[in-house]
Backbone:
């Protein structure tokens, strides 16, 4: 939740890191052999598929009242990595689910995530004018419509899930429950509350960990779990993927804090230095740049270790994503 980044890695920022390929290690007949995984093209294909799902499940912008449907679509389609729905879809495939089994969960995750971004940008919260290089929702449609657009996306997330329950061994409401727990006062909303309360206060490691776990990692963890559930995966698989998502989410947030210090506005699509100006509690402020970078890499490695029980070839997309979380340029 509340992560301000865009799809600019498709261009120069991403190419500076990857040269369009990521490398993963696959065992074969007792030996370690190197396999090239093209993460950039993989994610681009996934993003297009998620966009098509969103297009199909959202009301048309011409449907009355058109202003709210236009505002919902504006924030959903003005860029974005689609990281959470992609994690959901890849986790479902890793657990052997049939094609399309995680489509509804993926749409619900992106709708809820986008609602959090709209509300996070409001003057009462972070008061941001740019998101992914575009004017924020309240700058285009006004505060009232921005609030309602966020509310409508949140509601739509649960409407979509209600019509697509998970298969056995999960109950008909388990996907709804997972997303509700991730998004509520014990999840991302709680993390945002603590984040605002911590502004202009001395850095505190326990509080910072709580903020990162709830504000960002909880929804990424839920994305992986929901993919497993939609596929009818086992509890052991769900637990492994939850640990992967938790570590990736924490690493992602630390990387985001680092980019706020080290990147530039053209790459990020938003003004940099907002954490410093607002005196946000970040890992950079707590430990410094190098220690923050080291912690993000440690968490990325821990995420990789959580996948060892899965097939080596099948887990390669998630392994590449774990590395991307900490090496991205935007």
Residues:
């Amino acid at each position: 939740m509340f992560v301000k980044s865009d799809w600019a890695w498709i261009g120069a920022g991403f190419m500076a890191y990857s040269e369009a390929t990521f490398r993963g290690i696959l065992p074969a007949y007792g030996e370690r052999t190197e396999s090239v995984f093209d993460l950039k093209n993989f994610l681009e294909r996934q993003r297009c598929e998620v966009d098509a799902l969103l297009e199909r499940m959202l009301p048309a912008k011409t449907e009355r009242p058109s202003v709210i449907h236009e505002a919902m679509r504006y924030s959903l389609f003005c860029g974005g990595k689609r990281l959470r729905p992609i994690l959901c879809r890849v986790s479902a495939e890793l657990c052997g689910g049939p094609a399309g089994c995680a489509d509804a969960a993926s749409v619900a995750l992106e709708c809820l995530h986008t609602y959090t971004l709209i509300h996070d940008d409001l003057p009462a919260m972070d008061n941001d004018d740019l998101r992914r290089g575009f004017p924020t929702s309240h700058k285009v449609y006004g505060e009232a419509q921005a609030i309602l657009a966020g509310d409508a996306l949140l509601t739509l997330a649960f409407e979509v899930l209600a019509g697509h329950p998970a298969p056995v061994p999960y109950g008909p409401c388990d996907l709804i429950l997972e997303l509700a727990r991730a998004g509520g006062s014990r999840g991302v909303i709680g993390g945002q509350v603590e984040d605002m309360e911590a502004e202009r206060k001395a850095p505190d490691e326990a509080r910072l960990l709580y903020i990162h776990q709830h504000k960002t990692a909880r929804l990424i963890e839920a994305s992986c779990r929901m993919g497993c559930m939609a596929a009818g995966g086992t509890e052991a698989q769900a637990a492994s993927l939850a640990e992967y998502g938790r570590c990736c989410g924490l690493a992602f947030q630390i990387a985001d804090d680092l980019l706020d210090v080290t990147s530039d506005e053209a790459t990020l699509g938003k003004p940099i230095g907002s954490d410093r100006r607002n005196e946000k509690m970040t890992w950079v402020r707590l430990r410094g740049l190098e220690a923050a970078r080291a912690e993000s890499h440690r968490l990325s490695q821990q995420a990789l270790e959580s996948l060892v029980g899965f097939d080596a070839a099948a887990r390669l997309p998630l392994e590449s994503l774990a590395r991307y979380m900490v090496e991205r340029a935007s």
Remarks:
- The chain has a mean pLDDT of 87.
- The chain has one domain: 8-327.
- Residues 22 and 37 are 5 Å apart (CA to CA).
